[in-house]
Write a structure and sequence with these properties.
The chain is of the alpha/beta class and 162 residues long. The protein has seven helices and seven strands, in the order βαααβαβαββββαα.
Length: 162
């Protein structure tokens, strides 16, 4: 099922968790941390991103420490999914735990900053509306999609055990 279209915010390789949730702010509430999300590489990001937008990145997105605030800050800003060539393993799991969709796509370099895209994680498809192109990505397993659809691991478990 296609998600609604949103703007692609394109970043490079090795975006780490300290860039997503800077350590100096880590003890603050998430709505304060998110104001500093990616400020070291894109100072305008947190103030300009819109609900439903997408983060697009190269290899090893979310590498570094296990701070869950890195995924939580993106979610707080309204990011609907992250599309990358690869993810840091702990970040990938943290993203799902918060209901944020991480998609693995080999063709991310074809997506330009500002392109309007939409995703279909069930089918493993990204549609670039700006360029009228479609890219294959790794389809997410159903059990992980269920966690994301529920809004994260805790709501998923509450629904299942409730």
């Amino acid at each position: 099922m296609m998600h609604k279209a949103g703007r692609a915010w394109v970043f490079g390789d090795n975006v780490d968790t300290d860039q997503l949730a800077p350590g100096i702010y880590i003890k603050l509430p998430i709505d304060e941390i998110s104001k500093h999300c990616l400020e070291a590489i894109a100072p305008e990001f947190a103030g300009s991103v819109s609900r439903g937008d997408f983060v697009v990145a190269g290899e090893n997105f979310g590498m570094g420490s296990s701070r869950e605030q890195a995924a939580e800050a993106l979610l707080d800003l309204g990011i609907s999914a992250i599309i990358a060539q690869s993810f840091g393993g702990i970040f990938y799991r943290n993203a799902l735990n918060f209901g944020l969709i991480p998609l693995i796509c080999a063709d991310v370099s074809k997506i330009g900053d500002g392109d309007q895209i939409c995703i279909d994680p069930e089918a493993g498809e990204i549609r670039n509306l700006t360029k009228d192109e479609t890219y294959a990505c790794e389809a997410m397993p159903e059990h992980l999609l269920q966690i994301a659809r529920a809004g994260g691991l805790l709501p998923y478990l509450e629904n299942r055990l409730g």
